[in-house]
Amino acid sequence: MWGIIISVVLAIIIGVIGNALAGDHMPGGMIGAAIAGFVGAWLGALVFGNFGPVIGGFAIIPAILGTAIFVFLLGLVSGLLRRSA
After folding, report:
1. For 25-55, how does the pLDDT look when each residue is reduced to its tens digit (9 = 90+)?
2. Which residues cross the membrane (predicted)?
3. Which DSSP string corresponds to 20-58?
4. What is the pTM of this model?
5. Which of 83, 84, 22, 79 is nearest to 39 (CA)?
């Protein structure tokens, strides 16, 4: 049970840090930060591998970098959708 709670809290923290690095384009508040943290951790591990400290199953450095990339791409897509509508 504690592992799930730690993972969710860490995903939120990683999502907030990644959002700050990408320029604050993420919608959804805390839930959006958690989703971005999980997706970013997966994307970061896929692109950069697993290096650096691992906490709660997350390799912190690739997770933050992956989250920043994900939030940046999400901001680009949402900006394009707003302009076309």
Report:
1. 677 778 888 888 889 889 999 999 888 898 8
2. 6-22, 29-48, 54-81
3. HHHTS---SHHHHHHHHHHHHHHHHHHHH-S-S-EETTE
4. 0.82
5. 22
